[in-house]
Structure formats: C-alpha cells, structure tokens
Amino acid sequence: MTMQQKTAPGSSVTSYTRDQVKPLEELGSGVRAHVELAFSPGPQRGRIIIGWLYDPGANKTRLAALGAKGRGESVAIPLRDGEDGVRIVTTARPDVSAAMGAAETSTHQHGFVILLPGRLEQYSLAVLLDEQAGTLGFTLETRPAELANGLRACWPHAGASVRGMCLGADAALLALIDQFQLAQFDELYPSMTRFLRDPRRAFAAMDQAFCLGDAGLVIFGWHFEPAATLASISVHGPAGLSCDVSDALYALQRRDVLEQLHQRYPDVGEMRGFFGFVPLATFPGDARALCLRFADEQEVWLKLPTDEPHRSGLALVREILESIPSPEKLRHQLHTIYERGLGAAIEATARADRGTPPVPVCQQFGTPPANPTVSVIVPLYGRYDFLRHQLVHFADDPDFVAVDLIYVVDDPAITLAALDTAVAYHELLGTAFRLVHYGRNLGFAGANNVGVSLARADTVLLLNSDVIPRARGWLGALQRALDELPGAGAVGPLLQYCDDSIQHAGMCPQRDPFVPGFLLNVHPGKGQMWNGGEEPAQQELLTAACLMLRKADYLDCGGLDEGYLVGDFEDSDLCLALRQRARTLWLVPRARLWHLERQSQNANASAGFRQLLTLFNGWRYQGRIRAGIIANPETDGTADAHRDL
User: I need a surface site. Which of 331, 350, 450, 577 has the fewest CB within 10 A?
Assistant: First the structure.
C-alpha cells in the first residue's frame, strides 16, 4: 500500500459517485483491511486509528479520509504522512502475512497507526483502489482506559508497546501517542485509592504526599511485587502531566510491611518503603497519582493524598522529616537521602516560607548614644527572660555607654512578654536599648540580618541571649583585637560553662564516620579546663554565639545565610565567606563569657527531628563549599594548632 507519496496538499482530492463507494469486502479485489481501534479524546482533538491493510498487488491502494460532498457524492482525501496535520506510521504484521498466506518482507508493512487532525475527524476511513473507494467500518471509542487496553491488545506482534513500534517516527507523533495514552488519567482518577492489595500484581500504599507548590511534592509509601516484574514508576496529573520517578525513589526500611507479608512471602525483605522528591508542581488538592507499570505493560494506579492538610515552613519541614521511618537506623544512608532529593525538598519548603521581607517595628528605651562604637545584636526566641540577666551585666559595664544595643524578637508568641520585661528593666537599670519585632519567625540568621540592617555602628557584635558576661572589659578586648590583629575579619571570646570548662574556644571541621558524607563542626577541648593563656590565637571557625566583625564585611558576605534552619552552620558559613576574602579569624581568650548553650532555643524539639535538621544544614553547608560559594576549610591551609587543646 502507498502511504507516504508526497503531493501538494489537496491536489489529489477526488470525487466519487454513490456507485463507486462500497464496503471494501465488496470490491472483489483481494485487498483486505481492518480497523482494530479508533479513538477520539474529544471534539476537535483528532483521532487515532490503528489497523492493517493487505494488498496482494502491492502499491495499488491508498488510505483516504472519505466525506460527504452532497447529491449522493463523496469526496476522498488521500492520507499522506506529514501533510495537513496527518501522521502515519507503518509496521510489519507477521500475523496478517501468515493469515493471507504471504511471506513477510520489508515491503509488506501491513500495520498502520494514523493520527487525523481535528478538521478530518468527521470523515470516515476508506481504501482507494483504481476508481473505487472501499469503506472501512469501525466503532469510535471515547473512553481513555479502552485506548490504553486497545493499544496493547491490538498489537501483540509489534514488540513491547505501540510506542516502541513508533520509535522510528518523529517526536511530535510520539508525544501525541503519549498524550492519548495519558488521557486515561482523567477517567481513572475518581476511582483510585491509596492502597492496593493484588497478589497477581502488587501490594502497595501511598502514606504521605507533601505539596510544595511550584517546587513539586514529596511522597512516602511502600510497594511489593510478588509475581510481576516492575518496569517503571511514574507520577501523573491531569492534561498529560507526568514525571518518571523510577530512578528517583529511595528505598527505606519498613519493618511493618515485612511483618505483615513475610509469612506469605518469605522473600519480601524490609526495604520496601520509599521516599521521593517529585519535581512536578503540586498544590494542595491537585489530582496526582502514582502509576506502577509492569513488564507486560499492565498498570496499577494509586492516588496520592494531596488533599490532606499540611502546615508550611518549619512545621512542614518537621512533618516531612518525621515521616522518615526509623531514622536512627539510617545514619549511614542519610547523606545519600539528602542528595537524592530530601535536601532539595526541604530547601524549597524553607525558601517558599520566606515570603516578603519583614517590616520591623522598633521601640527605643532610653536615649541612644550619639556615636556608637559597636552595635550589639541579640535575637530572642522562646526564652525572653535572659534579657534581664544580660541587662544587669551591661548596666554595670562602662564599655556599654557607647553601645547601640538591639534586641530582636524572633518569636511572635513572646512579643508582649518581651516588651513588658523591657519596660520593667529599663525603668530599673536605665540602660538604653532598642526592642525590634516583626510578627514572624525568621530564624537565627534572619533575626541577626534584621538587627544588622538597623545597626548604627560600623562594628557589630552578634550575641546569643544565653551568653552572659563574667566580668567587665570583654567588649573592649574584642574591639581592640578586631582593630589590631593582622587581617582580622572576625573575633570571638572564650565561652565557658558555669564550672569554667570550655564551651567554645574556636571550631574546626570534622568528618564523623557514624554519619558518613557530612562535614560537621566540632569544638576542640569542649568540656575541658582552659589552659591556653590569654594570647589571641588564629582559628579555622568561630561561633556566632558571640562574634564581632565589621558591618561592611558582614554585608559584603551577604550576612548570615537564611537558607539554614533554626540555627546551625550559619556562623561557620559566614566564617568561610570571610576567609574566602582573605580575612582571618581570632579567638581572644582575654574576653570570657558564660554560655548556657541552646537554652535560648525551644527545649521541646524532638531529638530525632533536631538531628535530622542539623544534618540538613550540614548537607547544605557542604554543597555551598563544593560550589565554591564559600572557602573549603579542608583545603585552604589555615593553621589548626588550636586542635591540640
């Protein structure tokens, strides 16, 4: 049969009388043809027609669209691939050759797939033979699920799939076939469930689907195929939305699945759970489904629970991290899990929660210094009562006469209590300071960035609310060190516990074999007594629990990176940004303060969640190092003699 002869569009349109148009089997020519499937996805959306044509005379026949002309006449438009929106693909049909008693050769491509444009969908299909037109009858199918079944059932000799049969065609044809196949989603979705129990195919369940808006979605679930070979896994939505996640899912331990199935299926194993980050934009309530496709091309579908209410920001991050089963047993895989999408999902969640910049509300207590030498920034979160302990010490220190003291309330729940405390202790002590609030929780980095943006001095000191001075003079010692030490970019004091043991005397990077893959920070000498004297010592890293630097350097480095959550690695990130700019970091032991360590944070955070959050921050930190955004502390050669403490 001739299907790809090229002529000018419309140049071969032929009229036929009623006597010239008959059912093909009545023409007596030996030509045989059959339409196995005709499908329409909807009005003006075209048709897909699958069938075969056998022509014993070879090249004497042509397929055509046949329509009524009027007065008993018909008009036939020959179908040629690539003309007027028509697409045709041919394939060998050994079953047809065998049935007709003909040997199959490369020229006997009996099978066809025709894609008709919408303007021809009212036409029927005919075979043109000499001066006659033989009509082909068919029933038009409109149910998408029947298309999927028909594509497989009608082409048992074409290989694995009709799509595979069409691999020689161009991308437009393949995309259209995919579109037709995916159209079944709209019909199947209302009847889908989150659970599957089919011993012939699979046992599976979708536990969680966290919608991240434009960033995509995070899914948790499990599956086990006792008697079928899984070929692919994909996520789908309406209008042909799809994303192959076969290689994106990460196996997780599911002891509960093992206990449920192992008696009947001893080889089930416990690694049947999965986590996946799907970069398919999804908002709450969007229709999404997981498709398990098997080697025999059968499919099962599971509805994703996108309509379940979830929180946003850090609360959503908590929900995602707490969905990881038995994280304590995954310590050796956690870095890989973050690399395989969990890190990107959390980062996208945090980024979406930042919203518009905050609008700070400042309340001044007392008369501010005319020309402050340093601005001290103290974030308040959870524990507002530390404010009074610090103010008592600051009021008795002459160095604070020229200090621009700024308390930043980063917890809306304590705003009123913090204001009341500020009023009471200003009246009692007379220390001048500002209290800043903005009705949101920005995190440690965001709170400090707001404070620095309001700072009036050229030098800033970042200070935790749970860091308490031991004696006067510490602030002046830090200021002199920043001014006098060679290349100083930042300086920090010796921080001690109440028993005078070391809490912080500089930090350094370290790999932990118990959580491989992460670059973490350690405090050398922590818990030991200090015996390092009072001379300044250059460090690899310093903590932002008490850190002094020039405001210009802080801003040049971009401030504290707000991509870190709660309070980890922002300070070491800033230190590495300073080192990348050839600045040095110094510990100044002459300045000593007590640090209660993390008492200013929420004591109710679960250990598992807090550890996973710290490791996320560590994963992000290492990614910025690899990208060259900040210096690499393992390769830039900074002296590390302080590790011998």
Answer: 331
